[in-house]
Design brief:
The protein is an alpha+beta fold. It is built from 2 helices and 6 strands. A hairpin with a 6-residue loop joins strand 2 (28-33) and strand 3 (40-48). The protein is elongated.
Length: 109
């Protein structure tokens, strides 16, 4: 048995959970937040049989896509008055961070 920890962007969670439910898999959902953009993330925990691991990973890859978003960065301008001028930059967000761990023992009561 494997424990899969998947950290995904909130925008992808609904579609991901629909996909895994359709395959008869279940997840435990934990709210979390990202460090770089402080955007909403969700951490999902899956207990999955080893022979179903590839199915789960394929569903995650299909639903959690990397995309570009605009972030407004401020730049300081030195002068008589300290001013900040905002300018947009494009940053990659989304996708998934996945950890796959061996499970020594699984108990369900």
């Amino acid at each position: 048995m494997k424990m899969v920890i998947a950290i995904v962007q909130d925008k992808d969670v609904g579609k991901l959970l629909q996909g895994v439910t359709r395959e008869g898999l279940s997840a435990t959902r934990l709210a979390s937040s990202g460090g770089f953009l402080r955007s909403g993330n969700t951490t999902l925990l899956f207990g999955v049989e080893e022979q179903r691991l590839d199915t789960l990973l394929a569903i995650i890859r299909e639903t959690c896509h990397l995309r570009e978003e605009m972030l407004t960065q401020t730049q300081s301008i030195m002068g008589p008055v300290n001013a900040h001028i905002p300018y947009p930059i494009e940053v990659p967000v989304g996708g998934a961070t996945i950890f796959v761990l061996d499970v020594e023992q699984f108990i369900k009561v």
